[in-house]
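Field log, afternoon session.

UNIT: design team B
ACTIVITY: writing a sequence onto a fixed backbone
BACKBONE:
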């Protein structure tokens, strides 16, 4: 894809200055090498972390299908998310999104294109996970706002996410640029079964151990890498309970 010069993107300096001054937000995307799971990826990865659920100053739910168990066990509290400064930085990003979506999306589009330029120049593959701790259709928003059309990106670029929104999985099913995995929770069994029936890759959080098979599907140890969904279609990605999920009593975590 031939992008316009990213340094000439309309008002990008103003957008960045506004985000910093009003919400203390600098960079949106994080280098995946700083995350315990994405650091295992064999593709250079960038991930977007914003405060999930309703942890923003407008109380808007950024994970619209989150169950109580999911909200309580969210990875927002795992890894570096345990540190107060990291949590606050993610809350700041969420506040920017809910209060000034235009600024947020323009900065996000700019950062994505900037990393793609680097990947093209360096001749390496690159992956983006835009919902590290949220469940929004950033791909659709960026495309609809004419900020970034992921469908025209080079072959060395891939986007992927976990979601609890079955409709989003169906919308992007078969899309080779945006790979989605449906996440099972204690309250979305019907949608999860539908996903299994439609041969959509799903994920399940297990407590005691990760089995080799579950509900008639092969189970892959999803903790070995964050991008196994790219290589293992129509399977279940088994994830071990982490952070507050270890205390789950809601059946969000399955103990066999």
């Amino acid at each position: 894809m031939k992008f316009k010069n990213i340094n000439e993107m309309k008002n990008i300096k103003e957008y960045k200055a506004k985000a910093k001054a009003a919400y203390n937000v600098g960079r949106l995307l994080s280098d995946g090498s700083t995350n315990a799971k994405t650091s295992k990826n064999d593709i250079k990865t960038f991930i977007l972390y914003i405060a999930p659920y309703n942890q923003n100053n407008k109380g808007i739910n950024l994970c619209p299908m989150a169950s109580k168990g999911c909200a309580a066990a969210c990875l927002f509290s795992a890894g570096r998310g345990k540190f107060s400064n990291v949590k606050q930085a993610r809350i700041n990003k969420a506040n920017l999104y809910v209060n000034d979506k235009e600024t947020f999306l323009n900065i996000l589009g700019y950062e994505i294109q900037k990393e793609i330029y680097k990947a093209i120049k360096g001749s390496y593959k690159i992956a983006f996970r835009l919902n590290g701790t949220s469940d929004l259709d950033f791909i659709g928003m960026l495309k609809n706002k004419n900020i970034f059309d992921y469908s025209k990106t080079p072959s060395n670029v891939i986007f992927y996410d976990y979601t609890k929104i079955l409709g989003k999985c169906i919308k992007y099913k078969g899309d080779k640029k945006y790979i989605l995995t449906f996440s099972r929770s204690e309250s979305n069994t019907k949608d999860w079964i539908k996903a299994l029936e439609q041969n959509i890759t799903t994920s399940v959080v297990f407590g005691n151990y990760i089995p080799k098979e579950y509900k008639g599907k092969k189970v892959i140890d999803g903790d070995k890498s964050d991008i196994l969904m790219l290589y293992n279609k129509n399977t279940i990605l088994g994830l071990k309970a982490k952070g507050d999920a270890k205390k789950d009593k809601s059946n969000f975590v399955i103990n066999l």
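LOG NOTE: Strands lie at 29-31, 44-48, 126-129, 157-163, 178-183, 202-206, 213-214, 217-221, 236-240.
NEXT ACTIVITY: expression trials, pending approval
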